[in-house]
């Protein structure tokens, strides 16, 4: 399935050459020297320099002592290309970001125009036109009831900002004890100390403890592994939602500030919930004056087949965190949507929210976001995803004939395939088996077979799929064929 390409030169080398004049006495890195000397730079040089000097995120580096790093050099449409010339389907839209696909000239043009007009101005005490226009645009497509946008540069900062704003809001409105947060088990909400406290994955937290105190967990909506029999998913959802009420009552309603929930939980593998769950969650949050925060870092901007999961599942959040696909990944940007009530205490007098980010609402990122949303509208990407989602699901469900596939779940263009040892008993892989199969085989095998996606065992082992919204039945078939081939081999290895 992998397609080789012959082009291996680095087109930037010549462009960068004049910029690389360095003080002869300073450190001279081999990659720069090669570029400066006008030598062709490609995989070999990047491998050497990358292994010696780069630190990848959430990445085990030990395999690079024997094997190569995967270096991606180009993206076009729903394909990416690595430094060895291999063409891969982008089955994860970068990291749930490139919803309009890669290499959009409109986004490049918008960035260039903005850089020449106003390359940078912070939103500290000043406004700028693109942030103002973008806020207006976002509110026009967002869930009802939102009236303010606080810009960040990504999801973690959105989570951090939501918690801090909730805390200050309650301090300023006569409920100063409300500061605790509740989130769901195995949910990922980011990496800063505050956001990591909200994250529900113990393995990610242990090395950084003590974290910010006052963050608690309730069950998620993993229906496949529901702890008991339920008549249907609605009933299970009500059960799960009631655990939130229990936790609020246990901690004391006058101490709980916010509940964070993803419309579809990514970590653990696309845990969906029915509207009944979100309706009950809404009721509970209203009853105890707990801020309902929808973390749409992944589910925003069409991923669920609506602009936002909050609209699709009628969540009616008080705050909504978005990031990633707001620019289709072409610029780092996040937008926290808020109801006006959170802003009310800051409207008059001397009150200030002492919080912000130098690059939050960067003018170039905002310009790119505006151009990106225009593409969504012009090409009806949301409608396309909504109409094609059932085909995507059906295509993936064909994999049920494989003994290793226990569950296929998700919505929109966001699905997980759960890997099991025994379909009947739903027996999952042991830690050692998961380690061997996912890291030792699946991740590379998927790449070699022509797809970039994620084999993930933050919960039970799953393969996560979230292709660009531009994909259609042809790409679904390709994805299914690759998964079939790789999972068939995985089953043999698991039982070999
Ligand atoms: C639900 C959710 N919240 C927060 C984050 C953190 O976002 P970022 O990596 O942009 O800081 C992520 C990242 O994937 C996420 O999925």
**Number of helical segments with 4 or more residues:** 17
Distance between the termini: 25 Å
Radius of gyration: 23 Å
| Strand content bin | 15-25%
Share of helix, binned = 25-40%
The major β-sheet equals: 7 strands, mixed
> Which strand order spans the largest sheet, edge to edge or round the barrel?
5-11-10-9-8-6-7
> What structural class should be given to the helix and strand makeup?
alpha/beta
Describe the structure.
The protein is α/β, with parallel strands linked by helices. The protein is built from 17 helices and 16 strands. The strands form 3 sheets. Strands 5-11-10-9-8-6-7 form a 7-stranded mixed β-sheet, with helices on both faces. The model is unreliable at 1-8 (pLDDT under 50). The protein binds pyridoxal-5'-phosphate (PLP). Pyridoxal-5'-phosphate (PLP) binds at residues 154-156, 159, 188-190, 262, 266, 295, 297-298, 323.
Topology of this structure?
Elements lengths: L2 E2 L7 H5 L13 H7 L6 H11 L18 E5 L2 E4 L3 E5 L2 H4 L8 H13 L11 H13 L4 E7 L2 H18 L7 E5 L8 H6 L3 H4 L9 E4 L14 H19 L4 E6 L13 H13 L3 E5 L13 H4 L6 E4 L11 E6 L4 H4 L15 H16 L2 H17 L7 E7 L2 E6 L11 H19 L1 E2 L1 E3 L5 E4 L7 H23 L1
Parallel strand pairs: 4-14, 6-7, 6-8, 8-9, 9-10
Antiparallel strand pairs: 1-4, 2-3, 3-4, 5-11, 10-11, 12-13, 13-16, 15-16
Helix pairs in contact: 5-14, 6-14, 10-11, 15-17, 16-17
The structure holds pyridoxal-5'-phosphate.
The site of pyridoxal-5'-phosphate has 13 residues, from helix 7.
């Amino acid at each position: 399935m992998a397609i080789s390409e012959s082009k291996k030169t680095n087109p930037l080398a010549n462009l960068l050459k004049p910029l690389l004049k360095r003080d002869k006495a300073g450190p001279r890195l081999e990659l720069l020297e090669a570029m400066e000397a006008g030598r062709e730079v490609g995989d070999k040089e990047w491998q050497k320099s990358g292994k010696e000097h780069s630190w990848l995120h959430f990445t085990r580096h030990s395999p690079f002592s024997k094997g190569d790093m995967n270096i991606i050099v180009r993206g076009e449409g729903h394909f990416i290309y690595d430094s060895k010339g291999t063409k891969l389907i982008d089955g994860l839209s970068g990291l749930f970001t490139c919803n309009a696909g890669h290499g959009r000239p409109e986004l490049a043009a918008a960035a260039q125009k903005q850089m020449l007009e106003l390359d940078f101005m912070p939103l500290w005490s000043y406004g700028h036109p693109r942030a103002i226009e973008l806020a207006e645009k976002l509110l026009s497509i967002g869930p009802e009831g939102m009236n303010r946008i606080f810009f960040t540069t990504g999801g973690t900062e959105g989570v951090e900002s939501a918690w801090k704003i909730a805390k200050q809001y309650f301090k300023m409105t006569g409920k100063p004890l409300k500061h605790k947060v509740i989130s769901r088990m195995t949910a990922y909400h980011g990496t800063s100390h505050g956001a990591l406290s909200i994250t529900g994955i113990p393995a990610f937290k242990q090395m950084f403890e003590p974290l910010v105190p006052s963050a608690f967990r309730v069950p998620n909506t993993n229906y496949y592994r529901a702890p008991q029999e339920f008549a249907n998913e609605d009933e299970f959802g009500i059960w799960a939602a009631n655990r939130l009420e229990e936790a609020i009552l246990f901690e004391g309603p006058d101490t709980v500030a916010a509940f964070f929930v993803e419309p579809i939980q990514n970590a653990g593998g696309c845990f969906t919930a029915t509207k009944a769950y979100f309706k009950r969650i809404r009721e509970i949050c209203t009853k105890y004056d707990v801020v309902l925060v929808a973390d749409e870092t992944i589910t925003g901007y069409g991923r669920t087949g609506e602009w936002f999961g909050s609209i699709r599942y009628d969540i009616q959040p008080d705050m909504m965190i978005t990031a990633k696909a707001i620019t289709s990944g072409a610029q780092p940007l996040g937008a926290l949507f808020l109801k006006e009530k959170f802003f009310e205490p800051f409207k008059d007098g001397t009150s200030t929210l002492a919080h912000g980010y130098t690059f939050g609402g960067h003018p170039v990122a905002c310009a790119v976001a505006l151009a990106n949303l225009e593409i969504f509208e012009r090409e009806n990407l949301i409608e396309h995803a909504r109409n094609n989602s059932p085909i995507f699901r059906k295509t993936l469900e064909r994999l049920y004939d494989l003994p290793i596939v226990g569950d296929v779940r998700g919505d929109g263009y966001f699905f997980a395939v759960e890997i099991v040892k025994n379909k009947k008993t739903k027996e999952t892989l042991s830690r050692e088996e998961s380690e061997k199969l996912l890291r030792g085989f699946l991740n590379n095998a998927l790449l070699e077979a022509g797809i970039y996606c994620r084999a993930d065992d933050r919960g039970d082992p799953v393969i996560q799929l979230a292709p660009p919204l531009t994909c259609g039945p042809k790409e679904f078939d390709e994805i299914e064929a690759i998964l079939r081939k790789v999972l068939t081999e995985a089953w043999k290895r698991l039982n070999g």
